[in-house]
Design goal:
Keywords: Membrane, Transmembrane, Transmembrane helix. The protein is of the alpha+beta class. It has two domains: about 150 residues, no CATH class; about 45 residues. Helix content is about 30%, strand content about 20%. The strands form four sheets. A four-stranded antiparallel sheet has the order 1-2-4-3, covered by helices on one side. A two-stranded antiparallel sheet has the order 5-8. The longest helix has about 45 residues.
Length: about 200
C-alpha cells in the first residue's frame, strides 16, 4: 500500500496514526492525503498535526466530521488520550491564526505545523535549524514516564505551569491577607468605639 511510503505507523493510539514528513501545504495536497487515508463516513476527517511532544508530525483519520479550531490556538494529538488538544500560540513571533479555522485548512497556518527541536519554530525560544529532527524511541505509555531526546519544550511547558501555579498561589495569599487586615482593622475600630461609649 503506497500510503505507508515515507510514513511509519505509530502504536499507542486508539486509531491508526502515521508519521508525516510534512503536513499538506495547500488544498490540493490536503485533498490528496485525505483521499489516501480514505477517511470515510460522516464522523471522520483527515488530520495532520504535531504529536503531543511537538517532536514529529502525524496524520490520521480523526473521529469528528469537522475539526473546528478557535483563533489563537494550534492543535496537537495527545497520545495518552488519543484526543486533539490545543496549544496557545499567541506568543508566536508570526503565524498564529487570528480567526477561527478548520483542521481541513491547516495549510493556511503553517506556523502550527512547522516544528523542530521539540517546539513550534515560530516560538521565540525555539532554536531553528534547516532540518526537522526525527525523534526515535519515544516511550509514551504514560505522559509521566515519557522519555524525550530534547527536554527544552517540556521544560518550557512545565516552567509555564509552575509560574502560573505560583501566580495563583500568591494571588490567593494576597487576597486572604488583605481581607484579614481589613477585617482586623474594622473590628478593632468597632471595639474602640464600643469601649469609648
Amino acid at each position: 500500500m503506497f500510503l505507508l511510503v515515507g510514513c511509519r505507523k505509530l502504536s499507542g493510539y486508539k486509531f491508526p496514526v502515521y508519521t508525516a514528513e510534512f503536513c499538506p501545504r495547500n488544498e490540493t495536497e490536503w485533498l490528496e492525503r485525505s483521499s489516501l487515508f480514505n477517511c470515510t463516513g460522516d464522523d471522520n476527517t483527515y488530520a495532520c498535526f504535531p504529536n503531543d511532544d511537538i517532536t514529529e508530525l502525524i496524520e490520521f483519520c480523526y473521529p469528528l466530521q469537522i475539526i473546528a479550531i478557535p483563533a489563537g490556538l494550534c492543535l496537537f494529538l495527545s497520545k495518552a488520550r488519543s484526543k486533539i488538544d490545543a496549544y496557545d500560540c499567541k506568543t508566536f513571533e508570526y503565524g498564529c491564526p487570528e480567526s477561527p479555522y478548520r483542521g481541513s485548512t491547516i495549510f493556511k497556518y503553517p506556523s502550527c505545523v512547522f516544528i523542530g527541536n521539540g517546539c513550534f519554530l515560530a516560538e521565540p525560544f525555539c532554536e531553528r535549524s534547516s532540518s526537522i529532527p526525527k525523534t526515535e524511541g519515544i516511550n509514551t505509555a504514560d505522559t509521566r514516564s515519557t522519555t524525550f531526546s530534547d527536554n527544552s519544550s517540556v521544560q518550557h511547558k512545565t516552567s509555564t505551569k509552575i509560574w502560573i501555579g505560583i501566580a495563583i498561589f500568591f494571588g490567593i495569599i494576597t487576597t486572604i491577607s488583605i481581607t484579614g487586615c481589613v477585617t482586623f482593622i474594622v473590628f478593632r475600630k468597632k471595639s474602640k468605639i464600643i469601649f469609648l461609649h
